[in-house]
Amino acid sequence: MNKHILSKSTFIIGCQCSKALYLNEHHPELKAKITETQQAIFTRGQKVGELAQKLFPGGINLKNEYQFDFAIGVELVKQCLIEPDIILYEAPFQYNDVLSIIDNLVSKNGQLKVYEVKSSTSISDTYLLDAALQYYVIKNSGYDLKDFCIVYINKQYVRHGELDIEQLFKIESVMDKILPLQDYISEKIEELKSVIKSDNIPDIDIGPYCRNPYECNFIGYCWKHIPDYSIFNISKLKEEKKFELYHNGIIKFEDIPADFPLNENQKMQVESELTGKRIINREQIREFVEGLNYPLFFLDFETFMPAIPLYDNSKPYQSLTFQYSLHELESKGAELKHYEYLAQADYKVDPRIVLIESLLENTKGPGDILVYNESFEKTRLKEIANDFPEYRDETNERISRLMDLMKPFQSRFYYTPEMKGSYSIKTILPALVPELSYAELEIHEGGMASNAYESLFEETDSDKISKIRTNLLEYCKLDTLAMAKILEVLERE
Ligand code: SF4
Fold it and tell me: Whose CA is nearest to atom 4 of ligand 1?
């Protein structure tokens, strides 16, 4: 058997962009390094896949037998399927130079069914395409498939006690959706094989497909003619509008035609960039600042979203708060006090319980609680009030005291060219308080914090645990210190 030319993942890359497929094959050195987030998604997928195997118990994991020699694997599958009743995990098939590895293959009375596992909560078009490819390979390898199902996560499942995997997963047949795709799959395979065999890089310019359905690994290579700050950074401008400008040869702000339709905020962003002008609406800022009630608290949460619910009363992918940082400012000009809480990573104890007790204690009494992007903290607190009725009243009282420090920036009461169209605290801070920066921190954004915390569940090295915890504490503390310093700037205006 010849080595395969396409696999499920390279086929999907090729469907997104044939240039990406070519580069992946011939210039892997141009690929972006795998990010922590991508690695976390991959690890999560593996864990979900292993758990889903329990829905089909007693199977043989063929991967252990063939390792990466797929020809051996394909032959093994053939031999195994002589048995009318058998379950195989990671079963490889190959046809027409395409390799397909099936998560769970169930043969009952000689009738074959496929169960492909996804760690998502819905079935996307890409999953159907990938299922259609797998069906094509198995069917044309000479096997009759009775059914093809996708196993995915039931987002309505609420854990109570032991994990109920029958409830955690949904199983849906997609046969009626993948059969009509067979002609397309067959044509696409030939097209993509010729892309790989070609001597030249396909002549494809950048487009919306660079980030849809997945962020392409070659953006660093294909987008190098686009400056760091360009028309692609115009806030909330639709993708098709950005590419309309691009296809007219417009990349820089100064080249945007005067009559190009932009909303007020977008015009402000462009004008501010071109003139270097700061836009400060002092009246609105004063109204915001004078509306605040001391003592002021500055609060920030960090959360993680386990695909498989770990605790009672939690759902798949629910945001669980594991950490907070709180600065308190008793009166204008007073010294800031700091409080914080970071839960131990423990499969048995919901981090939110001790966290809310600590937070309620430290926010007793009067005073507004400032957050940055209120809907996030408010939703987390509402969930806690809902999941733990014993804290409901007090938690609701804290919710009633929340104020959003993002508002003056989101409403563009305060805008400088350094903000580059964004009102995220990560861009506001260097623009307003350049002496404070996230750049030096090991953890410098929420996704990293969440991955770092999740890694603590498996980590056994006490030095590493202590380092990760220190990094998490530093990061969250800077978020609330930043808020206090940003407010100082607003008060000076
Ligand atoms: S960055 Fe865009 S154009 Fe380049 S390979 Fe990826 S999808 Fe294709």
Answer: 222
Question: Tens digits of per-residue pLDDT, 92-117?
Answer: 999 999 999 999 999 999 999 999 99
The 10s digit of each residue's pLDDT in 159-215 is 999 999 999 999 999 999 999 999 999 999 999 999 999 999 999 999 999 999 999
**Radius of gyration of the chain measured on its C-alpha atoms:** 27
**What H or E segment, with its residue span, contains residue 257?**
none
* Beta pairing class for 98-108 and 86-95: antiparallel
Rounded distance, CA 372 to CA 376, Å?
Answer: 8
Q: What is the pLDDT of residues 386-417, one digit of tens each?
A: 999 999 999 999 999 999 999 999 999 999 99
Long-range contact set of residues 205-212: C-beta below 8 Å, sequence gap at least 24: 206/246, 207/17, 207/243, 208/239, 208/240, 208/243, 209/16, 209/17, 210/17, 212/16
**Does the C-beta of 210 come closer than 6 Å to ligand 1?**
yes
Pairing verdict, β 98-108 and 111-117: antiparallel
Atom of ligand 1 nearest to the CA of 204: 3
Enter the tokens of residue 241: 């509008």
**Mutation probe of ligand 1 site: the residue of 18, 219, 224, 226 with most atoms within 8 A of C-beta:** 219
pLDDT at residue 1 tops 90: no
- CA dihedral sign, ordered 246, 250, 254, 258: negative
Reported as a single tens digit per residue, the pLDDT across 104-157 is: 999 999 999 999 999 999 999 999 999 999 999 999 999 999 999 999 999 999
pLDDT digits (tens, 9 = 90+) for 230-264: 999 999 999 999 999 999 999 999 999 999 999 99
226 lines ligand 1 (CB under 6 A): no
- CB-based burial of residue 345 (10 Å sphere; 0-12 exposed, 13-18 middle, 19+ buried)? buried
Question: How high does pLDDT run on average in the chain?
Answer: 96
Distance 140 CA to ligand 1 centre (A): 31
Strand partners, 342: 323
Taking the CA atoms of 76, 77, 83 and 86 in sequence, report the sign of the dihedral they define.
positive
Q: How far apart are CA 6 and CA 15, in angstroms?
A: 12
| Cβ-contact 413, 381 below 8 angstroms | no
- Separation between Cα atoms, residue 126 and residue 11, nearest integer Å: 11
Amino acid at 481: L
- Closest atom of ligand 1 to CA, residue 19: 5
CA–CA distance, 45 with 120 (Å, rounded to integer): 9
Task: Quote the CA–CA distance of 299 and 491 in Å, as a whole number.
Answer: 19
- pTM assigned to the model: 0.91
Mean local confidence (pLDDT), 424-437? 93
Q: Could you say which DSSP state residue 114 is in?
A: E
